[in-house]
Amino acid sequence: MQAGSGVRAGQNAGVDYGTLGHGEEPAKQYEARDVRRFAVVVTVARRDVRRSADNTGTLEATSASSAAWLAGSGLLAATWPGQLDRALRQDWMDQQTALAWDLADDLEGPGWSALSLPVNGLPQPFRYRESEYGWVLAGEAPGVLLGAYGRGVSAYGVGFSTVPDLTAYTRP
Predict the structure, then answer these.
(1) Which of 33, 46, 74, 77 has its CA 20 to 30 A from that of 4?
(2) Is residue 1 part of a domain?
(3) Order of strands across the sheet with 144-151?
(4) What is the pLDDT of residues 7-43, one digit of tens each?
């Protein structure tokens, strides 16, 4: 079964980012969270300047930090502690999402390590970090920005390659 796959379309039918998962589907909020093994790859379009959704201005350019934040947010959504009561859950998510953004904004900071992984068979530099919820990595590859997150599988064994036809990954 593939873990979370999808595409986020941008303006003019362009793609802003997409995810492609491997392994078991991340646990639902009512299931045991420590038994799932998964890895999800987030591919982000490289954009120097992006128009806002309402076309009234421009947004920040995409960067490896964009991929890191999307991956960090994905990991949080897949692994939040199920034992939190409803009142605390949103506070926890808000706090962890802000932390994910702060960490993503400083990929060269002490919270990250260097890691080299293959992209289409060629080594590429990535930034990597682990937490009690799983791992997140982010970097640049020719033409794209890549992020990934997972749990129960080693990030050190991850490799990336171009998928020429995504129809095999679409859900029925």
Answers:
(1) 46
(2) no
(3) 6-9, 15-23, 38-45, 144-151, 134-141, 122-131, 113-119
(4) 444 555 454 545 555 555 555 544 444 557 888 888 8
